[in-house]
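Shapes recur. One chain:

:::
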Amino acid sequence: MYYYRHKGVHLVSLAPLDGFGPEISPVTEGRLFAPVDGDPVLGRGSFKVTCPGQLLNSHGLEVLDGSRLPPVQVDEATAAAISEGRLTAVNTGRHGWEDLLTAVPKGGKKRVNLLAIGDVGSTLLTGLKLLGGDVIDSIGICDLSDQITARWEFEMGQIALPWQYDAMPEVEVIPPERLFDCDMFVFVASKGIPPVGSGVKDVRMYQFENNAKIVKHYAKMARASHFQGLWCAVSDPVDPLAKTAYLESNRDENGVWDGQGLRPEQVQGFGLGVMNARAAYYAKRDARFASFLTEGRSFGPHGTGLTIANSIEHYDDALSQELTQLTVTANLKMREIGFKPYVAPALSSGALSLLLTLRGEWHCGSVFLDGIYMGVKNRYTPAGIETEVLPHIPDALFGHIRDAAEHLKEVL
């Protein structure tokens, strides 16, 4: 291994680095950064290294599977940094990568700003208000309708524990120009949701064209504000909208890519949480799927391409595909009953997943991998975003994950 000091921080590399000399002694404690090669647009920005093989294969789907990563020998000091969660990989192909070396994660409770207080937004807001007192300081709400925001500020202001009046985050109405004065921006705006009984089968993709236009506007606002927090896509279709936010924020006024907007790890899609919860719903009610509750995983987008694995160690492709189909069509079942399926998504994908994210805990969400936003188990740590690395993903299951990635590439 080769060690260097740059801008007061330590770098480690598998090969000598041009322009970073001279080599120094191995680092035994403190944060350590590993420069890795990567495409400036489709490569990951930075991430926590949990397996040495990620230093050679940093951006593909293989980072999810330890058995598919190349064998890499590292010295004792680097192995210790990986084991202790102190090694961060940084894509040197991206504009401004050096700024990450001196960035300091913000501590304490966070400010959350929420755009659009419709059915999903109001339910999500209620979840954050009731459950987020440990990690959220305050919540800003913004909507096209002043009447709607006035209502929800009034409603939320009257929710309190007796004699513990500061236990829950305060909610205030904010104008659009303050949307990115926060640590977490939550996009719940939507246009063109078809009514119940419309006959539209893929509601998510029906929404994409209109919602992408809205996302583009707020991605540009995040760019102009030099936003450093987390840009969260909750509206459908979650995964393509997350990528839209990332791409559009990095284009100048002429539409030319300059990389001066959101880093890929600053954007996450929140749609997989409810799919995972729906799979658990069916697993609790059918013993054939019970293994999902202790051994299962969910991968892929919120919709077409989703894969529910009944188990990783005892994977059964037929059972998994049956459970996947039940999960994907659960929203249609709710529509058949006569209601819009928004409560569970607003809480499982929205409020609950957002709170897990703020707490640095494992959750289901779409992170940037292989040039698209792919739903996986992940968490944010002081060393960067971490995706779960499984010992071995069965070939059939990995094939479904790869197919999902190809489908998402076709969408955007």
Summary: The first helix runs from residue 76 to 83. The CA atoms of residues 50 and 82 lie 6 Å apart. The first strand starts at residue 2 and ends at 6.
